[in-house]
Design goal:
By secondary structure, the protein is mainly α. The protein has one domain (3-23, 34-157). The protein has helices at residues 7-22, 40-51, 58-72, 78-92, 94-99, 102-124, 134-160. The longest helix has 27 residues, at 134-160. It is globular and about 45 Å long. It starts with 6 loop residues before the first helix and ends with a helix.
């Protein structure tokens, strides 16, 4: 990434998404509020891949995923695989996804985050069947957050002139 063509904004947004993925709520708050956290990494990677597919690819997604694995003490390669899968699908259909309205993209975001959550739950609890409400809550919250994140990142992208 060339930092002179706005690469610093891409790195900053990925860094903020990693921080938001790691930050936990205070212990005095109810436990269920943790479910209302969108999957920021999937949303940010999805945005940059459909907007700048030549700048963000599978290697970048894999490296970001490996970094998150180290931060959250997940099995190495777990988040890398999920983010690389999201990147591949978004990369494969970025021309079509760009033509969709933000509301149509919300349905794609829902299914992407849902697939990521199913993979996550299956990999963590393969031996036991602990399928909970967070399997649907996190994709719904991510879908609700997508239009706001899309507008925010798109405004930053146009102001900084990321190419």
């Amino acid at each position: 990434m060339n930092p002179f063509k706005g690469g610093w904004l891409i790195l900053l947004s990925l860094f903020v998404a990693m921080v938001l993925a790691v930050v936990h709520l205070p212990e005095s708050w109810p436990q269920w509020l943790g479910w209302l956290r969108p999957n920021w990494l999937v949303l940010v990677v999805f945005f940059w891949v459909i907007e700048l597919p030549d700048r963000i690819g599978l290697i970048t997604a894999w490296i970001v995923g490996l970094t998150v694995d180290a931060l959250v003490a997940a099995p190495l390669g777990f988040n890398g695989f999920i983010l690389a899968s999201v990147t591949y699908v978004a990369w494969r259909f970025f021309e079509r996804l760009r033509m969709y309205s933000v509301l149509q993209q919300c349905s794609v975001v829902f299914f992407m985050v849902f697939a990521a959550e199913v993979l996550s739950v299956f990999a963590r609890y393969a031996s036991s069947t602990q399928w909970g409400a967070e399997l649907l809550v996190i994709p719904i919250v991510s879908t609700i957050a997508w239009p706001f994140l899309y507008v925010l990142l798109d405004r930053f992208r146009t102001r900084v002139r990321v190419e």
